[in-house]
Amino acid sequence: MVPRVGEEMLVLTVMTRTDRLDQLGRRERRIARKRLRRVDALSAQLAQLHTLRTLLEQATEIVRGGWLQGAWFAVDMGGSTRAVAAPEIGLTADHPVSGACLVGAVVQAGGGPEAVRSQPVQRALDLIWHSLREDAGQPVRWCPGPPARMIHVLDLTHWNDAPDRTRGDVVELLRSSVATADAQRARCRSEQAVLAESFARQG
């Protein structure tokens, strides 16, 4: 069993072994550099998963505050509430958002409609779809491509708008998506531990 290693220990180990790359043969240097690139990728992924987890928690609070079906957002028009679909999305810039559907809550948590195509929003939607349709313990398929991602968003929208859907169902899906993010973080940390051990063996 690979011991759990903190990110600080991994960085220290990598820095120490990097100083010794010039002492290795050509093949060993190539392998070491590949491992270093993977270390960088894992660190970036962990940072991103932390951001996504925060975004999902904020989306959960938005749904708790006001959930709706058949539209992306609900806005406060000064005493009355108005549902907002895509053609009227500009209303969210001038009026407080008082509720959202599942996808709308993620968009709002990510910065609002202008952030709909941002990486955090898109990847949060990837996480939610994975939580809904796939095994939470399996790796998330990030960036599935525009056609597949559009199908996933439509699937989430139809799921949200199902006649028997409840606010509690949506909150529970968002909570399970946070758990999926945690599972992905655990996978990254486990791989970090393996890499740290391999660097340690080089020395």
Please explain how this structure is put together.
With 203 residues, the protein is mainly alpha-helical. Strands 2-1-3 form a three-stranded antiparallel sheet. The chain is elongated, with a radius of gyration of 21 Å.
Kindly list the characteristics that best describe this protein.
three-stranded antiparallel beta sheet, mainly alpha, about 200 residues, disordered N terminus, single chain, elongated
| Order of helix and strand elements from N to C terminus | HHEEHEHHHH
Radius of gyration: 21 Å
- SSE class: mainly alpha
| DSSP summary, beta strand count | 3
Sequence of strands across the biggest β-sheet: 2-1-3
Strand content: 5-15%
Number of helices: 7
The amount of helix comes to 55-70%
Principal-axis shape: elongated
Catalogue the unreliable spans.
1-7, 9-19
Query: Oligomeric form of this entry?
Result: single chain
**Major β-sheet annotation:** 3 strands, antiparallel
Mean pLDDT: 83
Distance between the ends: 21 Å
Short note summarizing the structure:
The chain is mainly alpha-helical and 203 residues long. 64% of the residues lie in helices and 6% in strands. Helix 5 packs across helix 6 (146-160).
In terms of topology, how is this protein built?
Layout: H1 7-18, H2 26-65, E1 73-76, E2 81-84, H3 91-94, E3 97-100, H4 102-109, H5 119-133, H6 146-160, H7 167-202
Antiparallel strand pairs: 1-2, 1-3
Helix pairs in contact: 1-7, 2-4, 2-5, 2-7, 5-6, 5-7
